[in-house]
Design a protein that fits this description.
With 252 residues, the protein is of the alpha/beta class. The protein has one domain (10-250): Glycerol-3-phosphate (1)-acyltransferase (3-Layer(aba) Sandwich), CATH 3.40.1130. 45% of the residues lie in helices and 14% in strands.
């Protein structure tokens, strides 16, 4: 995956990697500082507490690494309502930025995240993991997602199914999961455009972190009642079009 930015020279690349080390250090420190509250949530069996901490952690982390967040809300997202947030996925930074959504949520993410020391264990406890290589696991994850939504817990799902695009800001095709969940439960789906994460922390193997404004667009929630399982593809394409048009506009 390549960013459209000009490749940095050797000295600048060195500085960008130093910045990455600093960002990684701040990520670890802020994560550890929030751990006592997360442990309290475990003891009390009150998941929402940990999810709310995750929301505020995102703002603290990006402030400390000097990245300004610019969040644009195109519709009304009620804090007491339940939603499925669907965003483009070009960078591992997407996982860190999504907690700025207006309501706490559970991620539906790949099981490989659960293998990360400490953070992986916490992720697996409070979020929903999926092994996409196993049909039975995909079905179990789908059912867990439905149960969470029916329990008034919002979800965040990257509908591309991972970082798959080799030509950002152009997205890959969407998986059906979040759209089926929306139709089955009647929960509104919110498209989210992450315009700059692939510039800041590209998934290109160079391991650098760039200081840049981070623009997030939270689009108007979509009522799934106008779609059916027979028009599922139309639902997918409508959401993809909303996000892709915004990506194209913000990266033109």
């Amino acid at each position: 995956m390549n960013s459209n930015n000009q490749s940095p020279n050797t000295f600048n690349l060195f500085l960008l990697r130093i910045y990455l080390i600093y960002a990684g250090f701040m990520f670890t420190i802020t994560f550890l500082l929030g751990t006592p509250v997360v442990l309290l949530a475990l003891i009390l069996k009150y998941d929402k507490l940990a999810l709310v901490v995750n929301h505020y952690w995102a703002y603290v982390f990006f402030f400390l690494v000097g990245i300004r967040l610019e969040v644009t809300k195109q519709g009304i997202v009620e804090k007491k309502s339940t939603y499925i947030f669907c965003a483009n996925h070009f960078s591992f930074l997407d996982i860190a930025i999504m907690p700025v959504m207006p309501v706490p949520f559970k991620f539906v993410g790949k099981v490989s995240i659960a293998k990360v020391p400490l953070m992986g264990a916490i992720f697996k406890r409070f979020h929903i993991t999926v092994d996409r290589a196993k049909l039975r696991d995909r079905y179990a994850t789908y059912k867990k997602g439905i149960e969470a939504l029916k329990s008034n817990c919002s979800l965040t799902i990257f509908p591309e199914g991972g970082i798959r695009s080799g030509n950002p800001p152009q997205m890959e095709s969407f998986k059906e999961g979040p759209f089926r969940m929306a139709i089955e439960t009647g929960v509104s789906l919110v498209p989210v455009t992450l315009a700059d994460n692939w510039h800041i922390f590209p998934d290109d193997g160079q391991f650098f972190f760039r200081r840049k404004k981070c623009r997030i667009v939270i689009h108007e929630p979509i009522d799934p009642s106008k779609y059916t399982m027979e028009t599922l593809k139309e639902f997918q394409e409508d959401v993809k079009k909303i996000i892709q048009q915004e990506l194209n506009r913000l990266n033109s």
